[in-house]
Amino acid sequence: MDKECLSCGAKITGRTDKKFCSEQCRNDFNNVLNKDANNYIRSTNNTLRRNRRILSTLNPDGKSKVHKDKLLSRGFDFNYQTSTYTTKAGSVYTFCYEQGYLPIGNDFYALVIKKEFVD
Q1: How many CB atoms lie within 10 A of CB 116?
Q2: Buried b (16+ CB within 10 A) or exposed e, 4-33
Q3: Which of 35, 64, 65, 85 has the fewest CB atoms within 10 Å around its CB?
């Protein structure tokens, strides 16, 4: 019984458990299969990188203060972060990788860098 490639339909020769005629067909098949998940992950990672870049640009010295409008005008998305850190006093810092922010009132944020993430 001849088996057909799951990607292109070509006849498969070789091992009986082979599903694809070539590495290219295997890659094509899996890329199509995972396209939606990959697009979501790619979009999320792009947003996280943009957030990090914005925070980094506005906080070159490792500690600064910025208004929410300035973050938003540069495309910052408060819905995406990589972690949070709660101090003993109960303050909650939000991080995009090593770049973090803390709401300090009147729509201002304290920007910080988490030192243990920096080389």
Answers
A1: 6
A2: ebbbeeeebeeeeeeebbeeebbebbeeee
A3: 35
